[in-house]
């Protein structure tokens, strides 16, 4: 299959400067407009993460976030002031493509680069600090307006005028559905197994789901969602 998703990108962003934000190291506010992204298998040249344990890696080389979500978060009064791309720390911003249309395992072409969708963004308390609202991360988790990550299948350059084309669909689980399953309030082995079987799912999510099945319980989300404020 070959399906045009987006003709032209709203913005490309990168940054590698670490900044302290309320005592927490982050690169989220250091992203700036890029004329081009040079994408390698393990990184984007000129881009980095302050916390490589929880961000980045081979399954999360690029973060794609729908620009229209900013407007919705503003309407929900979840932002202390006006924010727009790339305030989420995204590398790719588009209009007209969302988590219900993008599926785990999707293989897409952007410019010279072939990518695979691996997971939704798993929101953490740094978003609360970024947007000045103590429950922003929780709102993202519940609304599933989170964006998604890519692994790199072929290296190359991405330019703002490049189209985004879906080449192949590997699963029937959308990014929104994956987010819903992963963050179910109650333990659900059957649903976890469905998500585990998705081709292309990020290894960190595979490991987390397997731990839940082994322990028959869900991990505590308080520190991730609220940090020390919990």
Automatic annotation (TrEMBL):
All copies of domain MOSC, residue ranges: 37-167
InterPro entries per UniProt: Benzoxazolinone_Detox_Enz, MoCF_Sase_C, Pyrv_Knase-like_insert_dom_sf, Tri_helical_YiiM-like
Recorded superkingdom: Bacteria
Signal peptide: none
Transmembrane intervals: none
PROSITE patterns: MOSC (PS51340), PROKAR_LIPOPROTEIN (PS51257)
Protein name: MOSC domain-containing protein
Organism: Shewanella vesiculosa
Phylogenetic placement of the source organism: Bacteria, Pseudomonadati, Pseudomonadota, Gammaproteobacteria, Alteromonadales
